[in-house]
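Final report, closing paragraph on structural work. Over the funding period we assembled a curated collection of sequence-structure pairs, and we close with a single example.
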Amino acid sequence: MSKQWVNQAIAKIEADFQRSADTHLIKLELPQLTGIDIYLKDESTHPTGSLKHRLARSLFLYAISNGWVNENTTIIESSSGSTAVSEAYFSRLLGLPFIAVMPATTAKKKIQQIEFYGGRCHFVDKTDQIYAESQRLAAQLNGHYMDQFTYAERATDWRGNNNIADSIFNQMQKEPHPIPAWIVMSPGTGGTSATIGRYLNYQQLDTKLCVVDPENSVFYDYYINGDASITSDKGSNIEGIGRPRVEPSFIAGVVDEMKKVPDAASIATMNWLAQLIGRKVGPSTGTNLYGVLQLACQMKLKGETGSLVTLLCDSGERYLDTYYNNEWINNNIGCTEQYDLELQHFNSSGCLGKL
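Its predicted structure, as stored:
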């Protein structure tokens, strides 16, 4: 491997980071929650439009520093879209070929974005086929399988160094409740929740981590019963989060509480938030925020005050043909009326419930 290429590659990635401002922390205006403040870390403002930009940067630095990637390496990744978009961006930055192995049901907008950055999409029929197919392609092409699901938790420095948790606490310093009662995150690889949970423990903070899992994902079941061999025959309907197997990057020991969020609740909350802030958000943000609202309601009923933080993972513009398409919702998610009513009740009372 050329030491000169390694130096130049890392310098390009670091320069790209230096050009990028931190993402905003948005405070929601919710007067029905007196003394309880909710914040969204808006990861949609990264150059590639999602939280996964952070992960892709870390994975490239990790792989290059380990000597796994050189100037002739084809990059292969298993991804339902957002990680692949971000890795395609960094592959183009370094002049490397990129192939994303993804389910055929991936949103068209994400496919277009991967191709915009010069990547190629390789489709499989079922979500659980992405791992073996990525390994096969890497062997066939003498490339490198990035394997976000294994390396996400170890590629990011969880102690600080401007990771997402460090950024949140720096931005919260002047808020009424600067130390959040809860940070809420949904797991895709599990890497972000691992980073946040480890940071909270390492920095000796009182903030608790709640991880919210969608339907057809096994992370919640693993957290409850400890069986790492559990699998699901069906993939998650909430793109970007939830997995049919327990991924190596999911670290259950750093999680204080887990909740299972119905898909219909995720979509209802996604639409509720879009109306509140005046722009579309992705479905995983709906999952995150529904968990936040549940915790906020519990705090309200107990007479507690404090702050809660979650992530706005990506923009809803990527999902116009799916999660913002009524026909698609009817065919894949079903009726959201129960949760629409809960959120209407929340608007007036500050508590989730049916009218």
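The first helix runs from residue 3 to 19. Residues 96 and 284 are 30 Å apart (CA to CA). We thank the funder for supporting this effort.
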